């Protein structure tokens, strides 16, 4: 949905005024030879627009340019297409489908382990091979995990999880939280979506899924803080019928309503997708206060110290 230029607006922690839009117009007009990536780098430097780590927020700037392209006469340089994209399952080898029938006590301790860069292709291939929805790639902010048994002292892979950016707008979720569109635009980054949750099809361990959900809830704030400079406050996920969300209920997630049957890319409101139950999990006791707390500010000193 195009961003209106009639009024100032927020994108995450960044307030955009008419002066900022004028800078964008001037930059495009005076430097028409800039590529999309060069324009993003220029805007992040001149606005300035930095993440909570004090680094240029190029990814968010790319999304802004996508939304503004073609509105009010703004013609953004097109993206340059690279080579053919190879599906992750063609780049890595999935973990074996472990055949395991056991009580949870027999395979404990269970660990939820962040995926390292050296494991990323294998994690991608594992999710693409075994998850009912498949997998191609993750975009935007994300944190992937392995679910492992550590009973033998070395990890035995049982499944995986992926957390990514929250849905832009969910009527049931937003009503339950009690915020308006402007507040949501400023603070939605503090909600993260569990977009994939896999227990390998050969693994049949009662209560494993809910136990893994509880484990990840204890560590994801710290992991996200290290990766992105702030900690999430709410987790969300979607469960499609006929699944009942039993594992989420057992892990104390809260069903707050249903989706309306449209996807992320349904700009014209014509898609008809299966409705799903929306489940939320507050990571803090006073989560409503934390959700809309002022964003921390970076400083040049902090950026230099971090270099």
Structural topology:
Layout: E1 9-11, E2 14-16, H1 18-30, H2 36-46, H3 58-68, E3 100-101, H4 104-107, E4 110-114, H5 120-130, E5 142-149, E6 156-165, H6 171-177, H7 181-187, E7 191-199, E8 203-204, H8 208-228, E9 234-240, H9 246-250, E10 254-258, E11 276-282, H10 287-291, H11 300-306
Parallel strand pairs: 3-8, 7-9
Antiparallel strand pairs: 1-2, 4-5, 5-6, 6-7, 9-11, 10-11
Helix pairs in contact: 2-3
Average residue-wise pLDDT: 84
Which secondary-structure class do the elements indicate? Answer: alpha+beta
H/I helix tally = 11
Largest sheet, if any?
Answer: 7 strands, mixed
* Uncertain stretches: 299-307
Describe the structure.
Strand 1 and strand 2 form a beta hairpin. The radius of gyration is 21 Å and the shape is globular. With 307 residues, it is an alpha+beta fold. Strands 4-5-6-7-9-11-10 form a seven-stranded mixed sheet, sandwiched between helices. A two-stranded antiparallel sheet has the order 1-2. It is 33% helix and 20% strand.
Summarize the structure.
The protein contains 11 helices and 11 strands.
Descriptive terms for the model:
307 residues; alpha+beta; 7-stranded mixed β-sheet; two-stranded antiparallel ribbon; 11 helices; 11 strands; 33% helix; globular; disordered C terminus
């Amino acid at each position: 949905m195009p961003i209106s230029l009639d009024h100032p607006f927020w994108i995450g922690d960044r307030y955009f005024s008419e002066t900022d839009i004028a800078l964008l117009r001037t930059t495009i007009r005076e430097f028409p030879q800039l590529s999309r990536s060069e324009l993003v780098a220029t805007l992040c430097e001149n606005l300035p627009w930095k993440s909570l780590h004090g680094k240029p927020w190029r990814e968010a700037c790319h999304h802004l340019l996508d939304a503004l392209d073609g509105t009010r006469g703004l013609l953004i340089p097109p993206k340059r297409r690279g080579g053919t994209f190879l599906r992750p399952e063609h780049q890595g080898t999935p973990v074996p489908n472990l055949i395991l029938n056991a009580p949870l006590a027999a395979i404990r301790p269970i660990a939820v382990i962040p995926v390292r860069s050296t494991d990323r292709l294998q994690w991608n291939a594992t999710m693409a091979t075994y998850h009912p929805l498949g997998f191609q790639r993750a975009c935007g902010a994300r944190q992937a995990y392995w679910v492992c048994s550590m009973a033998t002292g070395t990890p035995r892979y049982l499944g995986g999880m992926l957390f990514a950016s929250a849905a832009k707008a969910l009527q049931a979720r937003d009503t339950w939280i009690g915020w308006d569109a402007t507040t949501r635009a400023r603070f939605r980054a503090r909600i993260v979506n569990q977009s994939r949750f896999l227990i390998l099809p050969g693994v049949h361990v009662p209560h494993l899924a809910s136990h893994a959900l509880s484990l990840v809830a204890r560590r994801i704030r710290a992991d996200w803080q290290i990766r992105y400079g702030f900690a999430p406050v709410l987790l969300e996920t979607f469960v499609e019928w006929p699944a009942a969300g039993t594992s989420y209920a057992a892990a104390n997630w809260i069903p707050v309503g249903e989706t309306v049957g449209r996807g992320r890319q349904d700009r014209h409101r014509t898609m008809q997708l299966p409705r799903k139950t929306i489940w939320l999990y507050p990571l803090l006791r006073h989560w409503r206060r934390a959700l809309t707390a002022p964003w921390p500010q970076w400083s040049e000193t902090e950026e230099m110290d971090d270099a």
